[in-house]
Amino acid sequence: MSMHTIGRILATSDIHGQNKKFHMKTMQHEPEQDLLIVCGDLIDRGKENLKCLAACQKLQ
Fold first, then answer.
1. CA dihedral of residues 51, 53, 58, 60 (deg, nearest 10)
2. What pLDDT digit, counting tens, does each position of 23-54 carry?
3. Comparing C-alpha atoms, which of 3, 14, 1, 8 is closest to residue 31?
4. Where are the alpha helices (DSSP H) in 1-60?
5. Average pLDDT for residues 12-20, to the nearest whole number?
6. If you ran DSSP here, which 8-state letter would residue 40 be given?
7. Which residues pair with 1 in a beta bridge?
8. Which residues contact 19 (CB under 8 A, 6 or more apart)?
9. What is the 3-state composition of the chain as percent helix, strand, coil, each rounded to the nearest 5?
């Protein structure tokens, strides 16, 4: 088992289906170095719920 060093821990929440807001919060995320945590309320009352889900899935 190898250990992975984390550069930064980034957390976001309360996106509420606003894909542009989600993109702005995650655009500085560097997957090889950072740990990104999406806490909740990714979808809800916004008009871009499916886009937010797709963007989050691509980050996995």
1. 160
2. 888 888 888 889 999 998 999 888 999 999 99
3. 8
4. 19-26, 49-58
5. 92
6. S
7. none
8. 46, 48, 51, 52, 55
9. 30, 15, 55
